[in-house]
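Thread: quick sanity check before group meeting

JM: Hey all, I'm pulling together slides for Thursday and realized we never actually wrote out the predicted structure for the chain we discussed last week. Dropping the sequence here so it's in one place. If anyone has concerns about the input, flag it before I start.
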Amino acid sequence: MKYKAAIFDMDGTILDTSADLTSALNYAFEQTGHRHDFTVEDIKNFFGSGVVVAVTRALAYEAGSSRESLVAFGTKDEQIPEAVTQTEVNRVLEVFKPYYADHCQIKTGPFPGILDLMKNLRQKGVKLAVVSNKPNEAVQVLVEELFPASFDFALGERNGIRRKPAPDMTSECVKVLGVSRDKCVYIGDSEIDIQTARNSEMDEIAVNWGFRSVPFLQKHGATVIVDTAEKLEEAILGE
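JM (edit): ok, ran it. Output follows.
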């Protein structure tokens, strides 16, 4: 086998969470007096760097920031409008987090072929893990409900550990799995995942069915991009 462990992002990689994220964010924005007509395509531009950055992006978009500028949020190059305050971000988060935790699997489900992929990889002895910037509570619920007995380890964003693209979460994963980094591959759908793999000194595979387009992924350094779960399995196994 080419890799002994496959570490997956969650949103946009193994799970289509866009509809539930859209509903939850619109609910939180409505409850806090903001516009609440965001579309799935809007949501795809907001999420990927953790929920704090997602809400910040949404508020900035409401305040007039362009979609193109949102990718810099959460980095040293971000330019957040003065109208977007941390107090308001926190106020929206206080509504969003518990609501999403209770409504995170209404329309959410695995992408085509993903369940078979997990089954095949496990049968061939590949260790499987999820490392996501999604709140850890939601990650654990979704793994338990939608992927029972599929993963050896699952970790979402939580206090005390830096979110992706810092390597902290994947380092914790490597320690638990007991697999060397050069035998691990990180699979994701965004620039954050590409950066995470690079920072973690791991190979990376990008999928084209998630939150970012192929040209976007290529622009941000993706070298291996697959378009089906079957091709992803081949890339992991080296077939």
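AS: nice. Residues 2 and 122 are 14 Å apart (CA to CA). The first helix runs from residue 18 to 31.
JM: adding both to the slides.
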